[in-house]
Each structure stands twice: as C-alpha cells, then as structure tokens.
Amino acid sequence: MAVIGDGINLDVEQARPCLRVRTPAGPGVLVLEERRLTFTPDLTWSPFRHGPGFLRWLTSLFRRNKAQSIPVEQLLGARLENPAGTAFTVWYAVERVAKAGCVERRSFKLLHTPRFEVANTPGDVEAVAELVTHIRRTSSWWGRATPPHLAAIVNPVSGRGGAARVVDSHLLPLLRDVAGLRVTVMKTRAPMHAAELVRDLTLNVPPAEAAAAGAAAAGGQGAEGAEGVDAIVFVGGDGTLYEGLQGLFQRPDWASAVRVPLAAVPCGSGNGVAASAGMWDADTAVVALCRGRAEPVDVASVLQPPGSRFYCVLSVVYGAMANLDIGTQHLRWMGELRFHLGGVWEIIRGRCYSARVFFLPPEAEAASASASASALAADGASAGPRSGAAGGVAGAQAVPVGAAARGAVGAAAGTAEAGAGGMEERLLPSDERSRSGDMAAGAGAGLAVSDYPAGPPLPILSGLRSLPSPLPDTTDTLPAGWRKLPDSFAVFGAYNTQYLALGARMNPGGRMGDGAWDVWHMEGPPGVGRNASSRPAPRGMRMRSLRMLLGTEDGSFANTPGVLDVVKARALLFEQRDVATYTVLDGEQVPDRPLYLECHPGLCRLMVSPSFQEPR
Ligand SMILES: Nc1ncnc2c1ncn2[C@@H]1O[C@H](COP(=O)(O)OP(=O)(O)OP(=O)(O)O)[C@@H](O)[C@H]1O
What we know:
This protein is an alpha+beta fold. It has three domains: 120 residues, PH-domain like; 152 residues, Probable inorganic polyphosphate/atp-NAD kinase, domain 1 (Rossmann fold), CATH 3.40.50; 220 residues, Tumour Suppressor Smad4 (Sandwich). The protein is built from 18 helices and 27 strands. Strands 15, 16, 17, 18, 19, 20, 21, 22, 23, 24, 25, 26 and 27 form a 13-stranded antiparallel sheet that branches. Strand 2 and strand 3 form a beta hairpin. Helix 10 crosses helix 11 and helix 11 runs antiparallel to helix 18. The radius of gyration is 28 Å and the shape is elongated. Adenosine-5'-triphosphate binds next to helix 6. InterPro entries: ATP-NAD_kinase_N, Diacylglycerol_kinase_cat_dom, Lipid_Phosphate_FormReg, NAD/diacylglycerol_kinase_sf. It holds the Pfam family DAGK_cat.
C-alpha cells in the first residue's frame, strides 16, 4: 500500500483505494473492497443519516462508528462535484419490486451517497480520479476499458413531450456525468427524421461472435475504443424506435448494423418496447444502459404492394386495438390514459371488423418450405407473378380496398389518409419511391418478393408462387402448413413481445426472440364480407371485451378461457376488409392494402433491464 497524500492510501496493486474523506456529517475512511464500497466514520455520524434534526442526530449517537457499505453490484458510477476534483458522490441502484396485478415489475431506484471531500493536494485529486474511473469502469462500461458511446435519438414530441426533460435529468447527468459513458444527443426535427439519423450514424459493430454470445455485454470487446456508436438509444415512444428501425434497414451495411444494440427509454404514450424490455422508467433505463445486457429480438419484414417494405418489432393491430390507438391521437396529451378511454369507447361501440388472415405456424415451416420447393421445381423454378388462382385475381386489384374506402377512413379520422400515404412516401428512399410509383401505375405490381426493396432474406414469402392479392378464400392455393383464421374479429392483434404499452401486457407468455409472433384474436360473427361496414357485436362479446380490458395490465385475461384465442405464427398474410378501422404496425398506421409479414428470428438486439426475464 502506497501513501499518496495526507492520510490517503491507495492499494495500487489490487486497485483498492482507501481514501480519507470528509462528509457533511464528519470524517471517515472510504474503502473499495472486492465486494463492497465501505465508509467507516471516525465519529458518531453515518453519512447515510446526515441532515438536520435533533432526533436524527440523537439516533446516530447509538450507531457509533457503524460502517456503511454498498455492494459493488449496485454501484453505477461516481460524479465529481467540483472543478478541482476534490469532492465526489457515489451513485448506486437499488432494485425494487412492485406488483402490477398478478405480475411483478422489477425496477431500479437511483441513490447517491453524501458528498465526500478530500484535501486539495495533487495526490488526493489523483486518487479521487482513479477511484471514480475505477467505479465507472467496473460498474457501467460493459466490461470494457473505455466507455461505450451511446447515440441518443430524442423525439421531443413523444407522449406528453417529456423526452427533452429526460435528457436533462437522466441521460446527461447520470449516464455521462456519473457513469462516464459517451453520450451524443440528437433531437428529431420531423416525422421520419429518426430514420435519417440512424441511416447516417457511424456504427461500432461488435464482432458476430460477441453479438451471438449476446446476453452478457451489449458491445463486445472487439469493438472497443473505435470511434463509432456502440448502441442506439431511442428516447421517445414506440414510433420513434420504429422509425429508427426503418433507417437501420435502409443502410447498405444493415446485415452487420443489426448487431449494434437498440434501446428504448420510455417517453412516449405506449412504450411497448421499453416495457417489454423491463425499462419501466427512466431510472431503470439508465441502469440497463450502464449494465449493457442485450437480448436477441425478432424483427418482422412487412411487404405491402406496390413496393413498400416495413420493419417492426412490436405489433400488427387492426380493428378495435387499432382504433383505440390511432383514433385517440388527438388525446395524446393524456398519455397512456387515452388507450384506456379508447378501449372503453370501443366496448361501448361494440363493433366487429372484417379481415382475411392466413398464418404459418412455426412447426409447419419445414413442411411449407419443402412443398414450395417441390412446386417451384415442378414449375421449372420460375420466379415472379403467375397467372394462377391467386395471382390472376391479384393482378387486377393490387390496391384492394379502393380509394373510396380509404377516403372513408380518412374522413373519419381527419388526417388518416394523409398520414398513411405520407408515411409510405417518407419511408422509402427516393429511388424506391419513384419505382413504387411506377409500379402502382402498372397492374400486378408488387406481387413477387423480388419487387420489394432488398433486405433480410424472406424464405417463407419467397416460397409462395406470388404474393396473393386479394387473399384467397381458402388455403388451397398456398403451400402446405398455412392456416386460416376466421374472417371477422372483435379483437385482432399480432404481437412479438409481451407488452404493447407500459400498462398493457397484451401477450402474456410472449417471448421477443423466439422466432414467432403471437396472434391473439376474438372471433366475431360470421358473414361480415369484403368492404362491408363493421357489424355490431353479438351478445356476450362486450362482456368478453370488458374482461380483456380489465385484465390488460397484467395479462390476466389470458387465464380466463374463452376470452381470446392465440396462435403462433412465423409468417402472416393479412388483408383489411373493413372501412372503419386502420392497420397499424408498431403504433404507426400503414396504408390499407394487403400485407405480407415474415419473422426474422432474433435479427436485432435489444438492451434490456438487468432483471429482465421472459416466460420459459
Ligand atoms: N420533431 C418532430 N416534430 C413532429 N413530429 C415528430 C418529430 N419527431 C418525431 N415525430 C413524430 O412523432 C410521432 C410520435 O412519436 P412516438 O411514437 O415516439 O410517440 P408516442 O406516439 O407518444 O408514443 P407510442 O408510440 O409509444 O404510443 C412519430 O410518429 C414521429 O413521426
């Protein structure tokens, strides 16, 4: 042990600084041991019990020289409290468990010690700097020698507009000043700006092996020290992450860029991605970003004629579930409450919605692949649209629910039509836009997978001879293994993760990296046909919907038989056949045309809370 300054010792070899410090409650010794950081006061007061009040002072008399310690696994970092570097506070995170209905929510509360101060000598200042760096490196740098670099994409209009506040209260003071991470803040200036920002980022891609080893460290050792960004943090709602995801897949290097972890800090209205990752609040998100745990998350490619390709990680919803989101946009100022009001309104309305849905269960994937391979072989491996039963009809009706139908939706929602078309316009790079425009003019456009922007391979959809439009009446023209859902729904939603919003566990039992989406549906009355107006719900349906609404917070509706049915899907063919609703991907409306979804198992990586756990 070397003596560095007045009363300050540093056990250099074992990196165990022992500092003689002064707190507002009196002097003592601060020791960093292998398992804990301990402060032992010389006199009577504990640093954790300082503050005004005679009673507090009196109690501390009975706690003479009692050492206070923080387990190292709780440490987060330390902040220098003055320019001279002689004062600092140590920050740590304590786990809290709260009950939300029948499920536990594990979040973190951030706490700090009182201000420790040392004498102003070069040796003391150096020892403090060394201690601060040591705590930061071992607690919050993902096991690296240098601090990871986070790009924070901040949407100032998400939710109630609190994202900028979270930057000032958490991202900069805690992640940067306490944990010592490098944080670059970028504010979005308009819809889809997040995609542009992600497209232009210089990324520090971890090696494939490090990413595959995955769960432990978000970055991996190989990427350390490079100039790029180690993780992309979306400070906003689900829409902000969704837009960023589109940008990620517009990058020419998307195949490696997907190894850079994504994170969601909850500042929107729904925050389904953040909730599904266990990021219940900004404090917990800070701890997660410091610990650097990342898990694989499935991404779905969604193709829509004539040439759009979207990517989503959260959900495809339609009917009541879509109306309570998109139909309540004007109540955004209410935060999550708007979804509950929308849900109640949908129950009062008691509507069912018509749609055509086919899905491929995971266990049927192999059968489907071999069937389509042999069909292709029999056809001489021809590619592109065919004039078969599905393809022939499709050619004439590439946009199945016509302008009149979209007009009706637009009229109902004010800006719905502009929003949907506008998003498609914004999503596609300019060359794709012009291509898709040309294709829209031509009959049969967008019916082969090759008509869509390149990206992750789509073996299941490519196995279809063409993308059927409109969707057929039966599974006869589809490869083996495909199944059909009823044509009418009181509720329909396909989910990848457990939560659709912080207070909505819509997919209890869902796992975000299992390579399948869970399709929840409540069947409506038969005979609701194409382009028909939505029908009133039959008897008992309102009660089932109400049960679902009441059991949404913890997902307990799933325990009541007969409320909803669920199937797992590797791929989905979906066609909207109703004018009184929307089709919504990850909370963002898309045009009301057929969509073809295929799941890419575990393609991206999502940063999760240290206590994140999914059902087995
Ligand atoms: N600077 C901006 N000005 C206006 N709109 C923006 C800006 N930046 C992003 N947007 C748009 O804000 C919309 C809402 O963002 P986001 O989805 O993150 O919040 P939210 O809808 O409140 O949350 P959630 O999706 O979780 O319900 C997005 O559709 C996005 O296009």
